[in-house]
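Try this one yourself first.
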């Protein structure tokens, strides 16, 4: 779907999208459409349930006297109630209608629209962003076209502020690129997207944007002492990988910010095998790594003035003959030893070494890690919030603020020495399961043991938000959500640029 911002003009083909406020108060473009159609819109309103409530729609097909193929009246709600997130949702809802309409193009008139704090150019940009997010599809493995495939190719936003709108949209378009990459990676099946393939894609997609991408294979990691990460991968025929992505967009040198991702390309549970029903969807266990890769793409595409590193640990957790056993002890890169009592608690092992490596090599300003780490977080928070655990309140507040703005929200859960006790091992420095309740917290306590010298750190457990099996959100028309790209990009904008 092409998106363009053009000066207001008469709509002579395709869908003509106009707005009304709560109370069916038609905005000027809607009044014009009504007039041109000889009052058809007001007549249709009388026999409809449309009241102008946010998100409502009323459609008139082939109205007489109008060159446009249809008039789509959209409810905007009360004046000034639309914020950025609301505009994105609305853009997605409009796009949803147009994509399935049979039309090939549509034009939205927005000049009389008012967002509360949102300027007109931003209204256009966020509306367009929502529309683009809705246009995402993952069709790679369908060999037959469906007959009701969308014909819709071109969305025009009519605004006198077209230059400013275009500029405001450029940054969001970059974020959409990053989200789409993250969604693609999560949606790909695990026979295709194994660790080396993920690493290759990160390299090809990011290096042309100016991101420096390094890939460490098993030999390199073995030499360095990645005992925990390599332990997880050793039951798989696929080679484990560590990918280091550096974006240096700031002229100032100094410590970079760091994002670390769990990239378990498939999580069978290993010898502590998952039941069949629990294994489905475990191709998405690399969603943390996907979010990090997508965020790096967004930052580089919009040339963010920040120095950021993205580090992802890519493995496949399989029960092969060489697999780690429950009872094995692994030596991590940090030097700490781990008694593995359940091979299905593998994400923390991968992250442990990735976190150590990140700190020792980059001494970052902060680290945010993202991981589909525990089923327990899904039990706790469901699908609306990711869990956040942190040693730094300011970082938590910043993540919460970015989450509120973008709709990718986080909810803080505690860390406490009491929970740390639950991962004491009889024979090693720690064990990899808490064994009992508060599973998301003991997992976070485990990670905390790999944070050195009070590096500000936040762990996001995204197991409940990385993919969606039930109802789709308007801006997320796919199983893989791409969760994290929007909020991390926003975190950078709000605090770490310029
Ligand atoms: N990848 C899973 C967590 C998960 C579960 C993500 C469901 C998304 C949906 C993780 O590796 C895992 O298996 N965790 C175990 C830990 C347990 C063995 C301590 C879990 O949550 O059951
Ligand atoms: Mn697991
Ligand atoms: Zn896992």
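Now uncover the answer:
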């Amino acid at each position: 779907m092409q998106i363009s911002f053009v000066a207001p003009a008469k709509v002579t083909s395709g869908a003509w999208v106009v707005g009304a406020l709560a109370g069916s108060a038609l905005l000027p473009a809607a009044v014009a459409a009504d007039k041109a159609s000889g009052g058809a819109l007001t007549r249709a309103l009388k026999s409809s349930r449309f009241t102008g409530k946010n998100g409502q729609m009323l459609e008139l097909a082939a109205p007489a006297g109008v060159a446009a193929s249809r008039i789509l009246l959209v409810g905007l709600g009360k004046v000034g109630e639309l914020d950025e997130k609301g505009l994105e949702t609305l853009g997605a809802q409009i796009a949803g209608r147009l994509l399935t309409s049979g039309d090939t193009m549509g034009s939205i008139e927005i000049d009389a629209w008012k967002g509360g704090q949102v300027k007109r150019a931003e209204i256009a940009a966020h509306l367009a962003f929502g529309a683009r997010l809705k246009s995402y599809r993952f069709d790679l493995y369908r060999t037959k076209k469906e007959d009701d495939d969308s014909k819709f190719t071109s969305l025009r936003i009519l605004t006198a502020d077209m230059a400013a709108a275009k500029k405001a949209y450029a940054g969001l378009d970059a974020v959409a690129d990053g989200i789409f990459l993250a969604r693609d990676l999560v949606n790909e099946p695990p026979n295709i997207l194994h660790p080396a393939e993920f690493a290759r894609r990160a390299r090809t997609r990011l290096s042309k944007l100016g991101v420096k991408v390094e890939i460490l294979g098993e030999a390199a990691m073995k030499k360095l002492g990645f005992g925990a990460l390599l332990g997880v991968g050793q039951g798989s025929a696929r080679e484990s990988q560590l990918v280091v992505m550096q974006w240096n967009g700031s002229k100032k040198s100094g410590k970079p910010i760091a994002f670390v991702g769990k990239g378990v390309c498939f999580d069978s549970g290993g010898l502590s095998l998952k039941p069949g029903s629990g294994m489905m969807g475990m191709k998405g266990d690399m969603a943390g790594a996907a979010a990090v890769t997508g965020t790096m793409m967004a930052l580089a595409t919009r040339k963010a003035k920040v120095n950021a590193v993205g580090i992802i640990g890519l493995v496949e957790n399989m029960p092969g003959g060489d697999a780690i056993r429950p009872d094995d002890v692994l030596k991590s890169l940090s030097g700490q030893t781990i008694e593995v009592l359940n091979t299905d608690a593998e994400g923390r092992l991968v992250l442990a070494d990735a976190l150590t490596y990140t700190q020792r090599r980059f001494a970052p300003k902060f680290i945010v890690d993202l991981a589909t780490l525990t089923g327990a977080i899904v039990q706790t928070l469901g699908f609306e919030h990711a869990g956040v655990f942190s040693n730094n309140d300011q970082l938590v507040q910043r993540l919460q603020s970015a989450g509120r703005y973008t709709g990718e929200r986080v909810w803080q859960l505690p860390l406490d020495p009491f929970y740390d006790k639950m991962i004491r091992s009889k024979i090693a420095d720690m064990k990899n399961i808490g064994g009992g309740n508060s599973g998301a917290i003991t997992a976070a306590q485990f990670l905390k043991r790999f944070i050195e010298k009070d590096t500000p750190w936040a762990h996001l457990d995204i197991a409940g938000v990385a993919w969606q099996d039930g109802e789709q959100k308007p801006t997320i028309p796919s199983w893989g959500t791409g969760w994290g790209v929007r909020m991390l990009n926003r975190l950078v904008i709000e605090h770490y640029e310029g």
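Discussion: The pocket of zinc ion (ligand 3) is lined by residues 264, 267, 285, 346-347 (CB under 6 Å). The radius of gyration is 25 Å.
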